[in-house]
Design goal:
heterodimer, A: 167 residues, B: 188 residues, mainly alpha, Rna Polymerase Sigma Factor, Chain: A, Arc Repressor Mutant, subunit A, 75% helix, 0% strand
């Protein structure tokens, strides 16, 4: 088996399709006459192709069905667009929710960082918003500073400025 | 522009390339798409019906293929090889359909062989037997054979559609034809 044999199947198909030029064809036929393995493949394919000719060259008579589909296709081509708009709206909403979540996570992270700077336990800080409502004056001032980044102020003023409603 | 196109006759459209037709369609000329459809529906339909073996399913699939193409209207102008794109959609759709049918058969506990059931009333019995042999070929060989014989595509085009080399397409065709002959044995 030489280098030419390696790609013989493709060459056989090319030869029988008339795709080889004169020089390539002469080379191909010379090889076929020399190599018994390739010659066998060539004859096998030639015989198979002859055998299958009625099938391979068959012209279907069912094309009419397809020809008549054109009007249906043109009628239906805008139907999908309704769904496209819905999908775009849903994706936009999802994107908005994701952005809002990311923003709240980032702002919460900043608060956590401030809490760490002030050496307040992170675990303790997690529920800080709820804790604020019932905390004593001293804790409230610390939490308030952490949450809103303000300096300590008069407690009553802080209460006035704060949106948090204490019971 | 539109008036100029509107004045075109049928022969003018026939001379245009696929890309030109699609561009004109995107500019609002429906007749350009009509010509594009006329150019491909026959060969595509032959391929699909040979792949799935049912006239009604083939009609639905052909519709889906063109509707999917139209669904990409925004991107259509950017596609370099529309023909390849069209056939790729068809091949993928046919693969999905065949897989779904096989799953359904397994789910229903069907004892029948996995081959398709051909119920095309207008196809003769010999062809039906032949199609059942074609179904037994490996997927790539079957697809190359059908694209070559039903759609008259070049091997280079078949390679592009199936994501294989031109050479590989030829080799697959070789083995598809010789395997079919072996499978048929004494049938013909």
């Amino acid at each position: 088996m030489n280098k030419y044999c390696k790609n013989i199947e493709a060459r056989i198909v090319d030869c029988l399709d008339g795709e080889l030029n004169l020089k390539e064809r002469q080379l191909f036929l010379a090889h076929i006459n020399e190599c018994s393995v390739c010659k066998k493949k060539y004859e096998e394919f030639l015989s198979a192709q002859e055998h299958l000719k009625p099938f391979l060259n068959r012209k279907e008579i069912v094309e009419n069905n397809a020809r008549n589909l054109y009007s249906t296709i043109m009628e239906n081509r805008h139907k999908g667009k309704k769904y496209t708009k819905l999908v775009i709206a849903a994706v936009s909403l999802a994107l908005l929710i994701v952005l809002m979540s990311v923003y709240s996570i980032i702002s919460f992270d900043k608060k956590l960082q401030r809490a760490r700077e002030m050496e307040i336990s992170v675990d303790y800080f997690v529920d800080i918003e709820e804790e604020l409502i019932n905390s004593d004056e001293h804790t409230f001032k610390i939490y308030y500073t952490v949450l809103y980044g303000h300096e300590f102020k008069d407690f009553e003023e802080i209460l006035k400025e704060s949106s948090i409603v204490r019971p | 522009m539109k008036d100029e196109i509107g004045a075109k006759g049928k022969n003018d459209y026939e001379r245009l390339s696929d890309r030109e037709l699609i561009q004109m369609f995107l500019d609002g000329d429906i007749m350009a798409f009509n010509e594009f459809y006329r150019r491909y529906y026959g060969a595509l339909f032959k391929f699909i019906i040979s792949y799935c073996g049912d006239t009604h399913i083939a009609e639905d699939t052909l519709q889906e293929v063109f509707l999917k193409l139209l669904g990409f209207k925004v991107r259509l102008g950017l596609i370099k090889n529309i023909k390849k794109y069209l056939y790729s959609i068809a091949v993928n759709r046919c693969r999905d359909m065949v897989s779904a049918r096989k799953r359904e058969m397994v789910f229903n506990g069907s004892e029948r062989e996995m081959g398709m059931t051909y119920n095309t009333s207008d196809v003769n019995v010999d062809i039906q037997i032949m199609n059942q042999f074609v179904d037994k070929l490996p997927q790539t060989q079957r697809e190359v054979l059908l694209l070559r014989t039903k759609s008259d595509l070049q091997f280079s085009e078949i390679g592009e559609i199936l994501g294989i080399s031109e050479n590989s397409a030829k080799v697959n065709y070789f083995y598809a034809v010789t395997s079919l002959k072996k499978m048929m044995g004494g049938e013909y």
